[in-house]
Amino acid sequence: MRAIPVVVLAGGVLALAQSFLNPYYLRLVDVTGINIILAVSLSLTNGLTGVFSLGHVGFMAVGAYSAALLTLPTARKALILPDLPAGLQQVHLGLLPATLAGGALAALCAAAIGYPVLRLRGHYLAVATLGFLVIVRSVLINWERVTRGGVGISGIPPYTTTWWTYGVAALCLYVTWRLTQSAYGRAMLAVREDEGAAAAMGITPSAFRLLSLVVGAFFAGTAGSLWAHLITVISPNSFWLTETFALVVMLVVGGMGSTTGAVVGAVTMTIVPEALRGLEGGIQVAGLNLPPLFGLSQLLLALALILTMVWRPQGLLGGRELSWPRWLRQGSLPRRANK
Amino acid sequence: MSLVTYLLQQVVNGLTLGSIYALTAIGLSIVYGILRLINFAHGDVLMVGAYVALGLLGASGGNLWGALLGAAAAAGLLGVVIERVAYRPIRRAPEVAALITSLAVSILLQNAAIMIFTAHPRTFPVPAWLTQLHAVGGVLFNTLTLITVVTAAVLMVGIHLFVARAKAGIAMQACAQNLVVAEMMGIDSGRIIMLAFAVGSALAAVAGAMLGAQYGRIDPFIGFLPGLKAFVAAVIGGIGSVPGAVLGGYALGFAEILFVGLLPPELSGYRDAFVFFLLILVLVARPQGLLATGGEREA
Amino acid sequence: MLSVEGLDVFYGGVQALRGVSLSVGAGELVAVIGANGAGKTTLLRAISGVVQLRRGRIELDGRSLRGLAPHQITRLGVAHAPEGRQIFPRLTVLDNLRLGAYARGDGQVREDLDRVFSYFPVLAARRRQVAGTLSGGEQQMLAIGRALMSRPRLLLLDEPSLGLAPLLVRTIFTVIERIRADGRAILLVEQNARMALSIADRAYVMETGRVVLTGSAAELAASPEVKVAYLGG
Fold first, then answer.
1. Nearest to C122 by CA among C109, C134, C108
2. A291 touches chain B (CB under 8 A)
3. Would you put residue C34 in left (φ > 0), alpha (ψ -120 to 50) or beta?
4. Burial of A54 per CB tally in 10 Å (0-12, 13-18, 19+)
């Protein structure tokens, strides 16, 4: 296993980061890890089968809320959510079981909507998945007994650590790799390249599209749980257009359909907006005090994305897998021939 | 209130909401018909129209028609600029690129609005004569509602006649049915597409002004969901046709009002969820819409 | 009037035309014959501006058409009746014909409609019918009639006999001869070599993207190669 040195190296870097970085940067490292899980899991769904889902953040929300409800201390629940069903009221779980449960519930949702929605194509599919996000948001806002509506849930225990985050990210990458390399994964690739040919080979495209949607949703759910236990406050607005858009940009930066590209996109899209956010607080340019400009960072991102689409519609990295240094190449990440 | 009055009241409410959806859906539908583009930014053009109308109402001392006209003109221009700058360069790119671009334009407009108007809602004061209540057979409505429903109906009939009869309208249909051959006929498809964006955006602006007036306040986010719902309406009615968009708009308006009116109040917040649930049902059961006009482009 | 020289056209990485040259004189009827996939349709699509050239020259009366959009080329007097008819199926016959005259604003559309109806009387009877409900032969007539509505100096006809019964093919070819007699130049692409050579002045034979033979229609009809390959011996 040539992947072992990579894991050891990454572990070493993370250990160093933990001991030297101040809390702000450490949190940024954790957010990066969560974004990697989100982007890679979406690229699994999107890249392997061409299912461009705009509902990924909906799965993240399902994972975040359900996990938070499981880890929230019972005393806190009694205080902020007095009308919670009795079964949920008494539960108090650790991060791992709660995250698994959150991922599982997200996967269940994916399976439920996947059956009808995956029969659609292209545009309609995108709108239907966005519709799923609207439905999730609607439930989060209105099911006040369980979600506290627009106020959201606060006081979630800060269980998320760098190790958990990158552990899940590594698992997500590993699963993505195994799926692409497996007979299933090759079938999925076949689905993306030529549905007719896949069907002729006796592969039912819908079954594999569903599988990729469900697995992607599971990891989105776990990312939601990690997010909830990192930030400790969640509300319906945490899982809406800004987040969806950021995720789309990550995939575009990485070149759609590339796993390594998704990682690069996630890292870039965590750091760049953070840097841009500095602008919004108001800055001094040549002695002039510019007033705070809320919305500027999003606006610049949107502009950059439009320009990217105009010049390089295949994404910044053009959908290729990045190659690893030669000494690592065999047995590491999958290298797929993409157009 | 008797049951009949109650139902008639719901009909009025459904007509009002349906008018707004229908006006918004027309632009989405004709643009999709020609370009196979889901213009996520359409709802945000509606939002810009609402802000322009608000500004003009204030500046003109309450001149409603002037404000509507000005908002329509401004939004029409905005639609043309968006098409030119963002959509035209990617006309031959894969469809996912178009989808992403329109999402980006939507985010751009929302955030530009946040920078200019702030994210805080603004009240949308309407002239006093518009809030005058009328009662017909126990059904209550104000002048604004009447104007909304009638104006929308007039505009929709006008657009329908334009598309069905006018030379440019028939050219628009030709572009939707076969863009390449339409070009061979000497039709400058670029100009027709520009016209589709201008007309659709102007109608959305009127819808936006009416939405703002009905709710009494606007913010930079008021457009996105109505835009998305209008797309749902267009799909329900059969995308690509003006009558389809209108029918879908009214159908969706009535369905939403019925949902709110007939179910217990604690469920009425789920109206958005209901609309998209409906969309998924329609897409799966009848992907070509209720008025099956087809809309497939010949090779 | 039309002169084409050294056309190279690619679809992706595949070369569809290889150095194709041909010319059409004023009032001339020129046929291009060849098997399916020889590049005949691509040639017409290149002339009307639908596909881009990699190399070569296309001139209409000395004016280069290269880089012009299809609607601009139409306005210069080239009309294209595309392969497989491609009428606008959900518009009426009359609307289809009026669209043919879209680029013209001279108010003489009435006159042109009458001329098209004199060529194809059945279209007059069906003028209010939605075009998608016409028979295959009627759709072909509509496609030709629609192209004529722009009063083209050069008419590009792509496989007008495709999928039609022999009797209908004869009717359509009779009208093509009348159109030529009315003074329009025609570039006719046909798989039905016998029919095409029977009415053309000159002809070109295309194979795998190249022009391999050229001459007067009579010469080609008599040539042994053409007889064996395209006229069934």
1. C134
2. no
3. left
4. buried
Chain B residues within 8 A of C48 when measuring between CB atoms: 184
What the block records as the tokens of A139 is: 């439930």
What pLDDT does A291 receive? 60
- Residue of chain A whose Cα is closest to the Cα of B89: A310
**pLDDT score, position A331:** 40
Chains that touch B (3 or more CB pairs under 8 A): A, C
Report yes or no: B52 and B229 within 8 Å, Cβ to Cβ: no
Tell me which of B88, B91, B172, B181 to substitute to probe the interface with C (most C C-beta atoms closer than 10 Å): B181
Residue C64 CB partners (closer than 8 Å, separation 6+)? C57, C58
Strand segments (E) across B91-230: 122-123, 133-136, 139-142, 217-218
Nearest CA in chain B to C148: B185
Which regions of chain A are under pLDDT 50? Answer: 324-339
Residues of A within 8 A of B279 (CB-CB) are: 127-128, 131
List the single residue in B with minimal CA-CA distance to C49. Answer: B184
The interface predicted TM-score (ipTM) is 0.93
- Quick one: pLDDT at residue A204? 65
| Three-state secondary-structure class, residue C134 | coil
The Cβ of residue C61 has, within 10 Å, a number of other Cβ atoms equal to 12
Residue range C34-55: average pLDDT?
94
From the candidates A53, A135, A136, which should be mutated to test the interface with B, based on the most B CB atoms within 10 A?
Answer: A135
Is-contact A280 A97, C-beta < 8 A?
no
Mean pLDDT, chain B cut into blocks of 10 residues (299 residues total)? 86 95 96 93 98 95 94 98 94 83 95 94 92 89 95 97 95 95 95 97 98 95 95 89 94 93 86 90 73 42
Query: CB distance A127–B279 less than 8 Å?
Result: yes
Please report residues of B whose CB lies closer than 8 A to that of A150.
Answer: none
Q: Identify all chain C residues contacting B294, using CB atoms and an 8 Å cutoff.
A: 90
Read off the pLDDT band of C12 (50, 70, 90): confident
Residues in chain C within 8 Å Cβ distance of B238: none
List CB contacts (< 8 A) between B84 and chain A: none
Which residue is closest to A137 within chain B, CA to CA? B273
User: Hey, of C47, C48, C51, C71, which one would you mutate to test binding to chain B, going by the most B CBs within 10 A of its CB?
Assistant: C71
Q: Which residues pair with C157 in a beta bridge?
A: C81, C188
Q: What is the 3-state secondary structure (H, E, C) of C66-129?
A: CCCCHHHHHHCCEEEECCCCCCCCCCEHHHHHHHHCCCCCCCCHHHHHHHHHHHCHHHHHCCCC
* Interstrand relation of C185-190 and C154-158 (parallel, antiparallel or unpaired): parallel
Q: What is the reported pTM?
A: 0.90
CB contact under 8 A, B270 and A309: no
Question: B177: nearest CA in chain C?
Answer: C88
Alpha-carbon gap: B241 to the closest alpha carbon of chain C (Å)? 11
| C184-220 residue pLDDT tens | 999 999 999 999 999 999 999 999 999 999 999 999 9
Mutate: best of B184, B191, B241, partner C, most C CBs <10 A: B184
Backbone angles phi, psi at C164, to 5 degrees: -105, 150
- What is the predicted pLDDT for the residue at A315? 64
The percent of residues above 70 in pLDDT, for chain C, comes to 100
Please say whether the beta carbons of B207 and B115 come within 8 A: no
Query: What does residue A153 show for φ and ψ, rounded to 5 degrees?
Result: -105, 130
SS3 A287: coil
Virtual torsion, Cα B259, B260, B262, B266, nearest 10 deg: 120
Please give the structure tokens belonging to residue B3. Answer: 């049951």
A292 burial (CB, 10 Å; 0-12 / 13-18 / 19+) is exposed
